[in-house]
Amino acid sequence: MRTILLLSTFFLVVTSLRAQQTVCFYLQDGVEVLDFAGPMEVFSNAGFKVFTVSRKKDPITAQGILKIVPDYSIDDAPPADILAFFGGNAGAAAKDDAVIAWIKQRRPATQYFFSVCTGAFIMGKAGLLDSLSATTYHSYIGALQEALPKTRVLANVRYIDNGHVITTAGISAGIDGALHLVAKLKGEAAAKEVAAAMEYESWAPDKGLVLAGN
User: Fold this and answer.
1) Which first-to-last residue range defines the signal peptide (predicted)?
2) Mean pLDDT across 156-165
């Protein structure tokens, strides 16, 4: 009987590990701290496995103040359910052919794409926003529309959910978008628990634009 119980426990643990959803945070040198730190807090509190990736494994500096050693480079990063991009020197990543090729290669195996602030430029360069609606930091709305003529760029919205592609406005809006994605995958009650744990009292489920097809 004890052997059966041990085996049952083992299989439950294995099943739980397999079911744990993963989030890949692509971080470029100069990335905005709160752009990624807020969503990272959300996803980790919600039980997702979060890991960081950069162009190389060399340390990067976020916002000129925070040293970060990426978990992986684009050469050895494992697949993930969610692939996320952030503002702060996002143009460097958007102009890097190797990074864009890596994103395109991961597209078939990635369930959701998520951006905060000017991270939308990176997703747009990879073609992920073609024929979709998107948003970004308020000062870059015009620039994003100019860069992505195939995309409908909207201002004055915290996040836009196209189904499998979610973009958010700047900085703190990334927290709202991340909570929305948690609610989408794990239920609104789970998202509210995370918001309460973070003492993020301003979150409201209806702050964003959720388009048809969700």
Assistant:
1) 1-19
2) 97
Residue 152 in this model has a pLDDT that exceeds 70: yes
Note the pLDDT tens digit of each residue in 95-119: 999 999 999 999 999 999 999 999 9
Sign of CA pseudo-dihedral 123, 105, 101, 28: positive
Domain segments of the chain: what residues? 20-210
* Assigned CATH for 20-210: 3.40.50.880
